[in-house]
Design a protein that fits this description.
alpha/beta, globular
Length: 342
């Protein structure tokens, strides 16, 4: 499908109108109440039922959009829901489909575990861990408190995932939409993010792993402050480039379907290499993580955006710490500072 295909133009201009993008594969765009204002979900035609890939948020607007979308398609039940990862815009409405249609939920294990945990965890330790993370990054108490509030909104947009699911594993195959999909676990944006690849039809359901115009958020989160998701992301990007045909049609979680996967992967690899250099340059003298954020995000950020910006900055910092190109030193008030290794 070419970028100027009228089906792409139609779907990007409208919300919740299903569009065929390949035999047996339908594309649906759902609205989001964020700066990134939409998510793409896909329906795979199994003949007597649908398999969905991702769901959108758990809110009334999304449920109404799905009801309308399904009414426009051949009437059949939703038998399976595949969630590429646990984020609210991709798995938020999974429980609704399992309860309304008796659909089966399919996910990787770590994504299911994270989704279950975040939906039910209201313990006081969680905001305390978030606050400690932001304070250690150099934010003052008021800013840290607001970022905790902004970063603890998962339960607002998701129903708890079902207590049982079918586990999907790297290297498995899944038959859906008249195709045999090879499953690729591509961590980085999330812990066990799933992509589906049809080698014969040359179609990649990419989720948020590779997007056409923006770089997926790759963040360190307070629950795992020493994690190195950027290494995982860069490694899995290279894997996708190695295993997916360069002329494959990429069906992303945001933005329009596109060709040119290898060029896009190359751009993303270069993008992160450039950002690592920016972090090093910002740390030529000992610097708090908070003060490294503007080196990567020059525009003004809302409190909500700052949560993700700090997490992404931490991902680049941890990657450089692991490579031995940064080190932590104690600041005058005890706040850890970052210093580039000469």
């Amino acid at each position: 499908m070419a970028p100027d295909d009228p089906r792409i133009r139609a779907a990007t201009e409208r919300t919740a109108v299903p569009q065929p993008v390949a035999p047996g594969v339908w594309w649906l765009r759902l609205g989001l109440p964020f700066a990134l204002d939409h998510v793409n979900v896909y329906l795979l035609d199994d003949g007597d039922a649908w398999t969905l890939v991702d769901t959108g948020l758990a809110d009334e607007d999304t449920r109404a959009a799905w009801t309308d979308a399904l009414s426009r398609l051949p009437p059949k039940p939703v038998a399976r829901v595949v969630a590429t990862h646990h984020h609210v815009d991709h798995a938020g409405l999974a429980r609704w489909f399992t309860e309304r249609f008796g659909a089966e939920l399919l996910m990787t294990q770590r994504e299911w575990l994270w989704g279950r945990l975040l939906a039910v965890d209201d313990s006081p330790e969680r905001p305390e861990a978030f606050a400690s993370f932001f304070l250690q990054a150099g934010f003052d108490a008021a800013a840290a408190a607001e970022m905790v509030r902004q970063g603890d909104a998962y339960r607002d947009y998701v129903q708890p995932l079902p207590a049982a699911y079918r586990r999907l594993c790297d290297g498995d195959t899944l038959e859906a939409g008249g195709r045999r999909w090879r499953l690729l676990c591509c961590p980085g944006h999330s812990s066990e993010h799933l992509c589906l690849y049809d080698p014969e039809g040359r179609i990649l359901l990419a989720g948020d792993h590779v997007l056409p115009t923006i770089s997926p958020n790759v963040s360190v989160w307070p629950s795992d402050p020493d994690a190195d998701p950027l290494t995982e992301y860069l490694t899995s990007l290279r894997r996708v480039a190695d295993e997916v045909h360069p002329e494959a049609l990429v069906l992303p979680g945001h933005g329009a379907p596109f060709h040119g996967l290898h060029a896009r992967v190359g751009w993303l690899l270069d993008h992160h290499a450039d950002r690592l250099l920016l972090v090093l340059d910002a740390c030529r003298t000992p610097t708090a993580l908070r003060d490294v954020v503007p080196a990567l995000f020059e525009r003004a950020l809302s409190d909500h955006q700052m949560v993700f910006a700090a997490g992404e900055t931490a991902a680049h910092v941890n990657h450089l710490l692991r490579r031995g190109e940064l080190r932590r030193v104690a600041g005058p008030d005890g706040t850890p500072l970052l210093h580039a290794v000469a």
